[in-house]
Amino acid sequence: MAFKHKHLLGIQDLTASEITTILDTAESFYEISTREVKKVPTLRGKTIINLFFEPSTRTRSSFELAAKRLSADIVNFNSNASSTSKGETFKDTILNLEAMNPDAIIIRHPCAGATHYAATFSRSNIINAGDGAHEHPTQALLDAFTIRQQKKNFKDLKIIIVGDILHSRVARSNIFLLGKMGARVTLVGPPPLLPREFEKFGVNLDFNLDRAIEGADIVMMLRIQLERQAKNFFPSIREYRNIYALTAKRFRRAKKNAIIMHPGPINRGVELSADIADSAKSVILKQVENGIAVRMAVFYLLLGGKDREAFD
Amino acid sequence: MAFKHKHLLGIQDLTASEITTILDTAESFYEISTREVKKVPTLRGKTIINLFFEPSTRTRSSFELAAKRLSADIVNFNSNASSTSKGETFKDTILNLEAMNPDAIIIRHPCAGATHYAATFSRSNIINAGDGAHEHPTQALLDAFTIRQQKKNFKDLKIIIVGDILHSRVARSNIFLLGKMGARVTLVGPPPLLPREFEKFGVNLDFNLDRAIEGADIVMMLRIQLERQAKNFFPSIREYRNIYALTAKRFRRAKKNAIIMHPGPINRGVELSADIADSAKSVILKQVENGIAVRMAVFYLLLGGKDREAFD
Amino acid sequence: MAFKHKHLLGIQDLTASEITTILDTAESFYEISTREVKKVPTLRGKTIINLFFEPSTRTRSSFELAAKRLSADIVNFNSNASSTSKGETFKDTILNLEAMNPDAIIIRHPCAGATHYAATFSRSNIINAGDGAHEHPTQALLDAFTIRQQKKNFKDLKIIIVGDILHSRVARSNIFLLGKMGARVTLVGPPPLLPREFEKFGVNLDFNLDRAIEGADIVMMLRIQLERQAKNFFPSIREYRNIYALTAKRFRRAKKNAIIMHPGPINRGVELSADIADSAKSVILKQVENGIAVRMAVFYLLLGGKDREAFD
Question: Which among A47, A86, A89 has the least Cβ separation from residue C65?
Fold first, then answer.
């Protein structure tokens, strides 16, 4: 049951049993955020650094609140104000922060592999908060927590992930996780955003959402980054929406008790219609809530909270 | 004596007795910030979010310090770094933050009514930190706290509010509050910035500062936003200053023990002269100090601190 | 042994014995950052403001972590988001922050003398985190802490400081400190960046690094600000590097047990070669680590922690 990893770099490194350990631990932390006093002394005196080389509201703050609810000290860095603009290398930035004796460094970086590179020389626990189009493990873990909350287990669930698969670290981490947990995953999107090579991950590919959604237990929509994909990968938002947006009509083809997921922030009227976003079948806000519990669990397992239960 | 509101959206919603409750509560918190140890455990384990869609130094930090001195956890968001720029709606931003189980969300937004809208669907306590040209209730409350500190009560005080009334949420919240508390308010400013319709609030209007200031107990100056009004609403800063700036000479027409107020940040040499800003009659910095006590009181009354006095 | 100063504005104001007091105090705090629980309650309930009018990663965060590890509350301000852009004077900004009853205000400002000016009217403890090209006292103190850690004492050490002396507050604070502690300092750089008037500080000047480095105990490299100096003060980065960069070959002329220092962030391949930066003789990251201990000591000595040892 012990968790042997020093870092959380990606789902690819975890076994099904380790994933289960994280989800079980998250369950025990879930309740804390619903209390009158949402704080436990578990990680008092630990220092955590939030190092973001890309802008973020929800992920940064979710980590920040998770740390504070465990009584850890957390310091935020954004790349704008940082030394990177002064010509310092990524490695030197990490080494300098590390010289301040943090226990963990959470890193979001536009380059795939940045956090893995940091882990090769870092004494601190490195937590990947998204590296390029590679992995975003805490997102996949909170998605898994939400799925388990709703469906009890993963075995034989039919899960479709819809949208810009090519650029999505969320998709990639979910593909790894859901495969390990025994779910059947189908990726759906327009051909330029759904490369054939994804088949090697043991998933199905489908360019036709109306067909793929038949009998799905989970419909996981990805965000269309209007500023980017619209220009290069499909003729128009309108055309994309006609074929790949989740609408109430389309969702009726899924299983009766199917649920709707999205990593946020959502574009109403683009990848999903407003009635779908607000539907009782949507667990999008549950995902956000569960993010705190999952990140508390990750901190706890990596930072050695195990031995400190009796603290205070 | 109990405080029945869930949110603090505006002064318009409060009775005189509720305003008095807030001011009395603030009085009991005032002393904490002057102690050696400026911190009480009253709101330990509560989560407060500072959500600012407009830049701010003093208001954001005043809320932040008030929260920290009550031992609450507070997380800051600025709209720049936020998901708003990614196309997320205001409502979705609030709902997403709320999914993280905060106890209160402080909102500053350029649109009048934004916080009222948030309150229609929010489970958290919403605190209005300024919504467009509508209300800025904690500013009016700290102004009231300062007036009471100096003048004991409001009854029959002659208070003039001078400047850009049209665009000022500070003026509006003060008009409501001072009216409820029994003061006599005169609004002063150039005709384009002082619309006739303000008469419906039971105040006097005067375009002539030299006349309006006669016998005033309180002279409350508003900030001229150089970047905006100067261009559109009066011929030149110089002309505005000649007619509406508070100078030592002009201030002599007020009551002997009159005081000078300003919500800050001040423009020395624009809406008030430097000697007036630094005068012994100015309580501008007292207002800033009192802001902490008033915001601690608001947190305490809204977040249910009442039942937790014995905590720790 | 008591520390009599209210502010820490510059090394120029300190005696050798006061510097020793700070370093001794820092030694007692050094160990806290290496513990499992990196936090002591010494300054619980104190409020510290980090007021930065220039961007900074490491200095701001080093102060922030030092404050948090002493359990003080710390609030960050950056000039971008601040009222300065709204036309408020520097003095009014300080007075307004001070009205919130902070115990200390840390100030970084592009103008030399800004913190000294603040100290003339401030009730809080002012800590200079860098004022123009004038002083950066906590940097010199952490450098001194590092030197003492490596060399036991300062007496008769040969220390060379290399680079853009003219614009460097780090150089200036180090010149003052090292002189008071009895070290022999030589400043090295190209003539336009090494004005003759520095001789009045009792140091040697040398335009020739190959000569100056002979027999040095400490080689302290300064950062070349590529965006500025390259254009105006020397023909090209390449030429500067040929003459003034620290390379392994050049470093061999120093004493056998000489060490390499740099205030960071470093420009690999500009003022020092990559192998020098990563050399076992480099104590650059030690400097960063020691910064936390030194800043904890400064907080402790200024904020009256002395009388509160038994607190909690």
Answer: A47
